[in-house]
Design a protein that fits this description.
Blueprint (H helix, E strand, L loop, with lengths): L2 E6 L6 H10 L4 E3 H8 L7 H7 L4 E2 L2 E2 L1 H8 L3 H25 L5 E5 L14 E6 L2 H9 L6 H9 L4 H7 L2 E4 L4 H15 L11
Parallel strand pairs: 1-5, 1-6, 2-5, 6-7
Antiparallel strand pairs: 3-4
Helix pairs in contact: 2-5
């Protein structure tokens, strides 16, 4: 049976970099954020629905993510309506991914809000990427369109980093060198690459 490793972490912690490291190791990775980008892109299946619910947030180029974020952040009802559009579509793509890689020793599901949205019950193990708060803040505020107020609103929607680390099976440090982070990833790959026995198997 294929083991499912959930990869998560708060904004600015380096999750995308770590996901790429797993892929470099030959591990199949499902990137939920990348799937959302695809669904909201120029040919995305959700563009028309998002425009219907949030007029003025799309164009021929797809969804304007900055405009959409400004519309839903801080508005629980609006955020809920957006998630009701996105989550089923991402879940379908994830199921197709898992079916395609059922022979792999393990796969990685890159899930940004794994703890916040209940995704922990969909995985066998959890890896949390983590960096010191000051490093996180510098990274996030360097992003285009980001400011301290928006950062604070995003953090308010996320489980604190300390709690995520406490609930993780693996913690991947991203506040030091890339080499240190890569070694942590390689260690997890070595640990999880032993094929799992099927239930009832005696070998």
């Amino acid at each position: 049976m294929t083991l499912i490793l959930g990869l998560t972490g708060s904004i600015g912690m380096g999750k995308s970099t770590v996901a790429a490291m797993f892929a470099d190791e030959g591990v199949p990775v499902f990137d939920a954020d990348a799937e959302v980008h695809r669904l909201q892109g120029p040919e995305g299946a959700l563009v028309a629905e998002i425009e219907a619910h949030f007029p003025g947030t799309t164009s021929a180029a797809g969804v304007n993510r900055t405009t959409l974020a400004e519309r839903v952040l801080g508005d629980g009802d609006a955020l809920g309506r957006l998630e009701a559009l996105i989550h089923p579509a991402v879940a379908l793509a994830r199921a197709e991914f898992l079916a395609a890689h059922e022979a792999a020793p393990f796969v990685v599901l890159d899930i940004p809000l794994l703890f916040e949205k209940g995704g922990w019950d969909q995985v066998d193990k959890i890896a949390v990427v983590s960096a010191p708060a000051d490093v996180q803040r510098v990274r996030v505020l360097a992003r285009p369109g980001m400011n301290a107020e928006k950062f604070a609103r995003i953090l308010a929607l996320q489980l604190p980093d300390a709690e995520k680390r406490a609930r993780a099976d693996f913690v991947i440090p991203t506040g030091g060198s890339l080499g240190e982070t890569r070694e942590a990833v390689s260690g997890i790959v070595r640990t999880l690459s032993v094929p799992r026995r099927k239930p009832g198997s005696s070998t």
